[in-house]
Amino acid sequence: VGEMLTDMVFSPDGTRIAFSSDRGGTRDIFVKPTSGAETEKAILTGGLFKDPCAWSPDGALLVYRTNDPKTQYDLWHVPTSGEGKPTRYLATPYNEPAAAISPDGRWIAYLSDESGRLEVYAQSFPEPGNKNRISTAGAAEGLLTWTRGGNEILYVGGAARSVMAVPIRASAS
């Protein structure tokens, strides 16, 4: 049986890629230069499976999801240097299966089914707070990103399965 690679995310400058692999038995996260000049480096191994979701704009943090039997999909972040411990960002009784960090690194958009269906929310980052619901008619897994200037969040709408663009005015709070 071969190795299964899943969920790949490029660094903001495009020089590295984070991916998950089950080569160790559970899905672990590795980072590799896109040039192929060096081998990959394990960032997180062991425990629950892990899938990368998003890089911070400076490339120093990687947001990833894990699936805890008690709290379902949760969001965590870890330094991409491989130094330092993972930090839990969101661990609720609901699924948070995807995330995207704003270009200024101060906000995170994520999916959650806390309303009974997937919706898009935004909160401060790297510490949670000031939560705002962004979508109003559901969301689907797939596209979830901020535009380059950080003025809009793009996502796939629920039933319509259309790409939705929501204007964002971020303030200090």
How is this structure best described in words?
This protein has 173 residues and is mostly beta strands. 0% of the residues lie in helices and 49% in strands. The protein contains no helices and 15 strands. It has strands at 5-10, 16-21, 28-33, 41-44, 50-55, 61-68, 72-79, 87-90, 99-101, 107-112, 119-124, 132-133, 139-146, 152-157, 163-167. The strands form 4 sheets. The protein has a 4-stranded antiparallel sheet, with no helix packed on it. The chain is globular and about 45 Å long. The mean pLDDT is 90.
Helices, strands, pairings?
Layout: E1 5-10, E2 16-21, E3 28-33, E4 41-44, E5 50-55, E6 61-68, E7 72-79, E8 87-90, E9 99-101, E10 107-112, E11 119-124, E12 132-133, E13 139-146, E14 152-157, E15 163-167
Antiparallel strand pairs: 1-2, 2-3, 3-4, 5-6, 6-7, 7-8, 9-10, 10-11, 11-12, 13-14, 14-15
Shape: globular
Query: How large is the share of residues in beta strands?
Result: over 45%
Number of strands: 15
What's the SSE pattern? Answer: EEEEEEEEEEEEEEE
Rounded to the nearest angstrom, the distance between the terminal CA atoms is 50 Å
Mean pLDDT: 90
Helix content: under 10%
Strand order of the largest sheet: 1-2-3-4
Instruction: Give unreliable regions as ranges.
Output: none
Number of helices: 0
What structural class should be given to the helix and strand makeup? mainly beta
Largest sheet geometry: 4 strands, antiparallel
Rg calculated over all Cα atoms? 16 Å
